[in-house]
Amino acid sequence: MNNIVLVGMPGAGKSTVGVVLAKVIGYQFIDSDLLIQQREKKLLKDIIAEQGLDKFIQIEEDVNCSIDCQQCVIATGGSVVYGEKAMEHLRSIATIVYIKLSMSTLKKRLGDIKKRGVVLRKNQSFEELYMERCPLYEKYAHVVADAEGYNVEELMFVIKEKLKL
Length: 165
Ligand SMILES: Nc1ncnc2c1ncn2[C@@H]1O[C@H](COP(=O)(O)OP(=O)(O)O)[C@@H](O)[C@H]1O
Ligand SMILES: O=C(O)C1=C[C@@H](OP(=O)(O)O)[C@@H](O)[C@H](O)C1
Ligand SMILES: [Mg+2]
Fold this sequence. Notes:
52% of the residues lie in helices and 15% in strands. By secondary structure, it is an alpha/beta fold.
């Protein structure tokens, strides 16, 4: 199907590098988060605040399962890996690229994570979230792109090289 799906922690740069990569390789660009907002007619942070984490994860899984495209770069939301069906679907239509970044860089980039509308359980720390998520990104990824120290353009080239594009 020739699609590329970007997964990774919130703040890893999936949405930013995704659109740049799509432009350079001549693909379409989809951001799953925008599809969710469009479908629900609400901001992500409001869906999470009003409907709760589990409902958000369900909505996110439905939206990602419904993606049907060719020659697309798809930036997912960081919590997509909680939806097993969605990940199976995405793995069947795309090469999954995990954009990997250290906990310390992510913390610096994100600032106060609670203001960002992340799927973070009550009393769960960012460190705990990182430790919970990383094995899931590794599990579903076909390719890992180490993003440490790279600006957007450099990271785009790292991904392009990894995918031999
Ligand atoms: N390679 C990069 N180097 C430094 N900052 C970046 C890089 N990629 C993205 N950013 C910044 O990090 C923040 C999160 O980027 P974003 O693309 O929204 O991440 P994600 O979609 O993975 O949550 C934004 O402020 C963005 O400008
Ligand atoms: O990791 C998460 O829990 C989330 C990440 C967000 O997307 P980004 O990864 O693009 O920031 C968005 O899907 C939602 O707010 C939840
Ligand atoms: Mg994003």
